[in-house]
Amino acid sequence: MDPRARNTLGGSTSPYLRQHADNPVHWQQWGPEATEWARERDVPILLSIGYSACHWCHVMAHESFEDDAVAALMNEHFVCVKVDREERPDLDAVYMNATLAMTGQGGWPMTCFLTPDGAPFYCGTYYPAEPRGGMPSFTQLLAAIADTWRDRRGDVDDAASSVVAELQRGAGGIPEGDVRVDSALLDAAIASVLRDEDSDRGGFGTAPKFPPSALMEGLLRSYERTGNAPILGVVERTASSMARGGIYDQLGGGFARYSVDAEWVVPHFEKMLYDNAQLLRFYAHLGRRTGSDLAVRVAEETVEFLLRDLRTANGAFASALDADTEGVEGLTYVWTPEQLGAVLGSEDGAWASELLAVNPAGTFEAGTSVLQLPVDPDDRDRWSRVRQELLTHRATRSQPGRDDKVVTAWNGLTITALAEAGVGLGRPEWVEAAAECARVVLDLHVVDGRLRRASLGSVVGESAGVLEDYACLATGLLGLFQATGDTEWLTRAQELLDRALIHFADDERPGSWYDTADDAEVLVTRPRDPVDGATPSGASCLVEALLTGAAVADTGASGRYAAAAAASLGRVALLLQRAPRSAGHWLAVAEASVRGPIQVAVATDGDSGLLDEARRLAPGGAVVVGGPTDSSPLLADRPLIGGVSAAYVCRGFVCDRPISTIEDLADALSR
């Protein structure tokens, strides 16, 4: 037997791949060895892409990949390759585009059949073990593909060529237009977004309903610019609906991936680091801006969740908690009135049932309920005690699995959120947690000056960092520089930005960016996607970092960063004009750009009062730096005034007179 005919996933740095290491399928990892084996055998590649917290990925694995007969069919007719989409977002992007082009819909698990050269000729998602709902069984599909490969190779080659040509036609990025990013464009984009609001239940659209994390940050920044009360109304309705619904973990803090209904009641129970990092940033900003007790509480509890449940032993943050526990969705989290009474006693149990919308009929399955908090309790002390008792008991239940993979970009989002929330809400320990995470990622993920995508434990993976990794980590480091005044964070951020400008720019289309580096593995297309999704696009994250970097870097770097950011915003105007709900992070970045972006330099000899107020009052996207005169480029030649701290407020390259009082600072930042 060929020694390659074995499952090779046991040595992977991906927990998702390791979940499949005991399958009878001869899974290979993506790479030249697998493609060469397919050429030698003259068989197609069966590419299966998923991630560890994916419910239907687990279902297909149990139904098909763990079945000896199905595995034998796969092994006989294909070279089978398993990919973690979180570790290889470039592969996921290319083959998801192919799946969408062929079927009109996508999702995970993603199942693609490729020529040995990597060209897709048939794509889909989940396939059941038995025919169902008009779908063939997985074994029927395997047999049909194998027969077609053997008997109709010309049809396969034609299909592959057609799909690759379509992918290449769509890989040009956003075309140049004559629309400018200005206040008029942003106002029109906001008006379009507001028309789509679900004003009864918060958020946008119908079921399933996803937290519009980046869009909420953009809307909040728009409110800060315009003072338009209806914008704040949309923000507050959505924030409240999510925080009071079942999508939010009322006991442990943190948000699930999405709600399966339009009312935010029943979540898909997986918890992703990237969702919670973005939502922490938004709720902390909302709490800082409006004084909302709900927003501040949610921010605090989300940090508790991150530090308790997703922080790894070395101080970075794991990727996700599974949707399933022991193969059952929601097993850890749902309750009946009887269970509440058994833990709390009859009196507190009845009180908690009413407070948390738990009833005999249930809101989930088999008479169980997901906990909600429609209104805050009058007795806060009682709720605090009950919540802790329930959380303690819940910890004795079986727990969902955790994907311990540390992803650079998502940790960058978390660093940003912790740093901003820490300075905005006066929690220096959150800033220190962000700094500890940053040190781990820099020490482990920077190899020969270049970023790697992910690590597991103390072992960094081979996958190269993509654009979002450089951009999100740079933004986080710039946030730490602002929070601490430590110029080492600025230096490391500039190194990442300079690398990004060299390796990810499209030299033929200034302002356009590829998601993979110029020396990355060559795929059937070089992926790029400027549209914001569950995570912000790499391009929008890079422009955020470039805008901040332009404000705080020395003169030479500042000019490069500002020019690159301006070129990118010139291109994205078309996206903001035509599809603003798909450009939530771009909206946040554009709002910062249109306002200057605002830069506040606080010269101080140690008195932090004016600096603290600048951090509290500054709008989202503003750059705030403080410390002794000349301690950083933004503070150069900006002295104390009359021996006391002074704030210098600038918009772009135009600065107001220095300010020494909180009242004057508030007035300057409100304009």
Stretches with pLDDT under 50, minimum 5 residues: none
- Calculate the mean pLDDT score and round it: 95
Q: Please state the structural category.
A: alpha+beta
Kindly provide the name of the CATH class of the largest domain.
Mainly Alpha
**What share of the residues does DSSP label as strand, in percent?**
5-15%
Summed up, the helix count is 24
Main sheet properties: 4 strands, mixed
Task: Compute the number of strand runs.
Answer: 20
Cα radius of gyration in angstroms: 26 Å
**CATH topology group of the largest domain:** Glycosyltransferase
Summed up, the domain count is: 4
CATH architecture of the largest domain: Alpha/alpha barrel
Helical fraction equals 40-55%
Order of strands across the widest beta sheet? 2-1-3-4
Which shape, going by the Cα principal axes?
A: globular
Distance between the termini: 74 Å
Task: Describe the structure in brief.
The protein is α+β, with helices and mostly antiparallel strands. It folds into four domains: 9-169, 3-Layer(aba) Sandwich (Glutaredoxin); 183-323 and 403-594, Glycosyltransferase (Alpha/alpha barrel); 333-397, no CATH class; 598-669.
What would you say this structure looks like, in words?
- By secondary structure, this protein is α+β, with helices and mostly antiparallel strands.
- It has four domains: 9-169, 3-Layer(aba) Sandwich (Glutaredoxin), CATH 3.40.30.10; 183-323 and 403-594, Glycosyltransferase (Alpha/alpha barrel), CATH 1.50.10.10; 333-397, no CATH class; 598-669.
- Helix content is 49%, strand content 10%.
- The chain is built from 24 helices and 20 strands.
- The strands form seven sheets. It has a four-stranded mixed β-sheet with strand order 2-1-3-4, with helices on both faces.
- Helix 19 (487-503) crosses helix 20 (538-552).
- It is globular and about 85 Å long.
- The mean pLDDT is 95.
